[in-house]
Amino acid sequence: NAGVTQTPKFRVLKTGQSMTLLCAQDMNHEYMYWYRQDPGMGLRLIHYSVGEGTTAKGEVPDGYNVSRLKKQNFLLGLESAAPSQTSVYFCASSYSVRGAYSNQPQHFGDGTRLSIL
Amino acid sequence: GQQVMQIPQYQHVQEGEDFTTYCNSSTTLSNIQWYKQRPGGHPVFLIQLVKSGEVKKQKRLTFQFGEAKKNSSLHITATQTTDVGTYFCAGLGTGGYNKLIFGAGTRLAVHP
Description:
- Chain A is mostly beta strands.
- Chain A has strands at 4-7, 10-13, 19-25, 31-37, 43-49, 56-57, 64-67, 73-78, 87-94, 107-108, 112-116.
- Chain A has a single domain (4-96, 105-116), classed as Immunoglobulin-like, CATH 2.60.40.10.
- Chain A is 0% helix and 48% strand.
- In chain B, the strands form two sheets. In chain B, strands 2, 4, 5, 9, 10 and 11 form a six-stranded mixed sheet that branches. A five-stranded antiparallel sheet of chain B has the order 1-3-8-7-6, with no helix packed on it.
- Chain B has strands at residues 4-7, 10-14, 19-25, 32-37, 43-49, 55-58, 61-65, 71-76, 85-92, 100-102, 106-111.
- Chain B is globular and about 45 Å long.
């Protein structure tokens, strides 16, 4: 049981280049999330999806796009990379919740370390 | 907007000493989760607290949720080198869908 798998693990880009980060989960989770982690700032939500074919903006969505064409996959795209997007990117997934005030644990992938020069 | 603040940012202890990290929210939380991230690793879910004043224990770890549901703490008794890592609290964000607002984390270093 692989859980949440992220590819690639490391990447160096030049300013202006584009790339796609892939997240795959095998737990049949409805919800999926993309975070970025920067020193001293914890994890910040970029985009999320509550089901196949749906996406929504999180706290810091600018400069990123996402797609969820299949339930098990959640893609994060950078159309024109900027140095400010140098970060560690984590994908997470969880079961759906009933009601607006309930929680489920989130399961994280190993992360993608992205450097933009 | 909604914020979750965590202190201290960094704690350095000798093995065997106790450790506590505190989490405070700008708004009342319906529940709070705690995660641990080992150096170079990914966050791993530890526990969730739901009830006002709730206290839960996991071996040497004690988690508390404040009476007003605006603060929480994690206390580790007699730290070990295996406790090294960053501990995050996370509260439920607005709009549901299991979105979390994470604190900045407390990085724990344990020296033998």
